[in-house]
Amino acid sequence: MLKKKSHFDILKCFSFFLPAFFYLTLSPQKAFAQCPRFAAAGEFPTAGEILCNDNYAVGYSNSRRSPLWAAEKLTADQTIVSQKTANPIGNINTDPRIDQGISLADYQKGAWKPLSLAAIGDMASAKAKQQTMLQSNIIPVTTSLKQKVWRKLEENTRKLLAEYGTINVLTGVIFGDSSQSFGKNNARLPDKVWKVIYVPRQGTAAVLCNNNEPLHCTTTTVQEIENLCYIGLFPGLSESESNRQLHPDHWPGI
User: Fold this and answer.
1) In this predicted structure, what is the pLDDT of residue 82?
2) What span, in angstroms and rounded, lies between the C-alpha atoms of 64 and 139?
3) The pTM is what?
């Protein structure tokens, strides 16, 4: 004779599935499925809560109150539209999807300047440009890095479209063991900032800059960046493809 299940027995049964249910519904992989078009081979780096925007995705760390990386897929048509679209007046916008991050007020004192990982000059609409100014896409960097190097690096990255047509771009940060905090919400200060380009079926090229004085940037490899930040940058690619080095003309050119 079958024993009638009590409410307690039923609850125990469902409790077995609850961890898997919450993992599937709350995991970054849910957001992952919404914007794979920005990821090389459809897979993002293996860290951060994935936040989708119109022209890019970002992997955000609430514990560090900082983006870890931003992923874009650039095309020549997109950058042409971007050049014809006015940039919004500079500001930092709150992002309701994250815990409290760095505000504009945090930059009003001291030497640190706000830098968008996904570049405003890459975006194909006024709305997309505005989204690059969200807290979830912005890190504090030195004046030298922002004004003397990074702007030129972004411009040179867009110039590659004339040579390759379509490229994937990853931009991210590395935190050291003794990274300092910044702002009233104690965001972590990145020790280094990097940018990687991937040309489908051809390979990658990378550059790494320190986020202190004196400023120093160097060309590097995907493997070296992965070793420094302990994440996989291109999990959808074979190791041989992600580490096949490109040597594009005039890049990084800084």
Assistant:
1) 82
2) 11
3) 0.85
Q: Where do runs of H (alpha helix) occur along the chain?
A: 7-26, 28-32, 76-84, 126-131, 143-144, 151-159, 161-164, 222-229, 239-242
User: pLDDT tens, 130-167?
Assistant: 999 999 999 999 999 999 999 999 999 999 998 999 99
Q: Which pair of tokens denotes residue 178?
A: 């003794």
Residue with tokens 């997109």: 78
pLDDT value at 122 more than 90: yes
DSSP letter for 177, please: T
Residue whose tokens read 């989708």: 52
First to last CA, the chain: 79
Cα distances from 253 to residues 118, 132, 167, 214, in angstroms, run 19, 24, 17, 19
pLDDT-based confidence at residue 55 (cuts at 50, 70, 90): very high
Instruction: Give the residues across from 49 on adjacent strands.
Output: 60
pLDDT at site 30: 40
Cite the beta strand spans of the chain per DSSP E: 49-52, 57-61, 66-75, 113-116, 138-141, 166-174, 181-182, 187-188, 192-199, 203-210, 217-220
Q: Is the dihedral of CA 43, 44, 47, 52 positive or negative?
A: negative
Q: Are 12 and 6 in contact (CB under 8 A)?
A: no
pLDDT of residue 48: 95
